[in-house]
C-alpha cells in the first residue's frame, strides 16, 4: 500500500462564537485509511457537532458546528505517520 502523504495542510482559522468553521487537508491518494481528526488531542467523531467528510476522494474536511469558546485550540489531521495542525 502506498504511503499517503499530506499535499496541502490545514490553515489557521479565526471564527466568531456560534459560527461554523471548516478545515481542509488534501492527501496524495484516494481512499486513504488510518485518518484521524483531533481537537486539543481529543479524537473527533462524525456527529451533529462535527461533520467529517471527504471531497473528491483526496480532500478531507472537518466542519465544527456552532463553535464555542471551549473549541479554541489546536486541530490536528493525521494520516498514517503524517500530521498537519492549525
Structure description:
With 86 residues, the chain is mainly beta. It has strands at residues 6-8, 21-27, 35-39, 42-43, 50-55, 59-64, 75-79, 82-85. The protein has a four-stranded antiparallel beta sheet with strand order 1-2-6-5, with no helix packed on it. Strands 4-3-7-8 form a four-stranded antiparallel beta sheet, with no helix packed on it. The mean pLDDT is 95.
Q: What share of residues is helical?
A: under 10%
Annotation, overall tally of beta strands? 8
CATH architectural group: Sandwich
> Which CATH C-level class is it?
Mainly Beta
CATH level-four homologous superfamily name: Immunoglobulins
Sum up the overall morphology in one term: elongated
- Average pLDDT metric: 95
Distance between the termini: 28 Å
Q: What is the fold-level CATH name, i.e. the topology?
A: Immunoglobulin-like
Low-confidence stretches: none
Structural class: mainly beta
Radius of gyration over alpha carbons? 13 Å
Work out the count of structural domains: 1
The main sheet comes to:
4 strands, antiparallel
Separate helix tally: 0
* Widest β-sheet, arrangement of strands: 1-2-6-5
Strand content: 35-45%
The H/E string reads: EEEEEEEE
Domain Ig-like: 2-86
Keywords: Cytoplasm, Disulfide bond, Phosphoprotein
Protein name: OBSCN protein
Pfam family, one: I-set
What brief labels describe this structure?
single chain; 86 residues; mainly beta; Immunoglobulin-like; four-stranded antiparallel β-sheet; 0% helix; elongated; cytoplasm; Ig-like_dom_sf; Ig-like_fold; disulfide bond; phosphoprotein
Amino acid at each position: 500500500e502506498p504511503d499517503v502523504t499530506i499535499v496541502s495542510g490545514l490553515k489557521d482559522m479565526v471564527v466568531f462564537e456560534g459560527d461554523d468553521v471548516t478545515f481542509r487537508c488534501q492527501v496524495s491518494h484516494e481512499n486513504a485509511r488510518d485518518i484521524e481528526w483531533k481537537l486539543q488531542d481529543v479524537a473527533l467523531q462524525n456527529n451533529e457537532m462535527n461533520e467529517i467528510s471527504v471531497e473528491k476522494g483526496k480532500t478531507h474536511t472537518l466542519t465544527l458546528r456552532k463553535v464555542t469558546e471551549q473549541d479554541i485550540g489546536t486541530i490536528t489531521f493525521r494520516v498514517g505517520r503524517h500530521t498537519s495542525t492549525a
